[in-house]
Amino acid sequence: MANNTKTNEFHKEQNKEEMKKQLITFAAMIIFTVIAFLIVGTGIMSKMMAIPLLLIMALIQVAFQFYYFMHMKDKGHELASIMIYGGVWAAILTVAALTLVIWW
Amino acid sequence: MSHDHSLNPETMPQHPEKATLEGKNKFLGLWFFLGGETVLFASLFGTYLALKNSTAGGPTTQELYGLELVFVMTMLLLTSSLTSVYAMYHMKNNDFKKMQLWLGITGLLGIGFLACEIYEFYHYIHEYGFTFRSSAFGSAFYTLVGFHGGHVLFGLCWLSAIMIRNAKRGLNLYNAPKFNTFSLYWHFIDVVWVFIFTVVYLMGKVA
User: Fold this and answer.
1) Rounded mean pLDDT, B46-51
2) What is the CATH number of the domain that holds B191?
3) Can you tell me the distance from the alpha carbon of B204 to that of B201, in angstroms, rounded to the nearest whole number?
4) How far is A17 from chain B (nearest CA, A)?
């Protein structure tokens, strides 16, 4: 029983560490969001500069969401990665096809 | 009841959500579902991008969108993502009451988000006469954003169902995977929203 309590304490400590990382992730996501809204709200950037930057910031936020909040960085997420990247692959093709048809 | 007891040991394993075969299956099944959802939303995003300039004389994206409300909605949904992380943190520490509390906060933030979205649609329809039938842009906009709102609504129903159903049971190896599955789904809704506020609202405002 004493041994059990010890491992529990260890796991609790581990969970706490993990939670700290999650909070840093959340702070980073808030900062990215605020920057994105500021770029558009203040209009300091030209359209050619702003749009790629906004998309890059969205991709970083989504990576944080997947790898930290949804734990894809942890062990045992190989199949999960295959499924989500498979979906992303099909998603890129879909968006490319639908936007390319209006190019001419 | 001996069956129930075996699912609720004195000391929970470190990952109660993946300790049983059913838990593992739920986890994989949900990721499979999310892969499909990615493609579903991609088709709606592609349609929106193709049709966003077909306004048929109605308001353009620049005239229509307001950033303030979208910012508030983004903060609500982003925070609800963090509160569901907190709920899962308490699940791993086998603290059922705190998990329910944080899940409740997640639900309230979700309701706040949905209320803002309903107000937004109401505003567009009454102030601008911008409806689903106004133009190809209108149809694409309401389908994309409305589908996301529908996912939020579905998530809220799902959340209240598992919270009420398990309120008296406490946390065990049978329902831990259910809570974890919901939290993954909720994060995914936030992922979709990140693209909506970037591609629809922010890019619509600069373009």
Assistant:
1) 95
2) 1.20.120.80
3) 5
4) 11
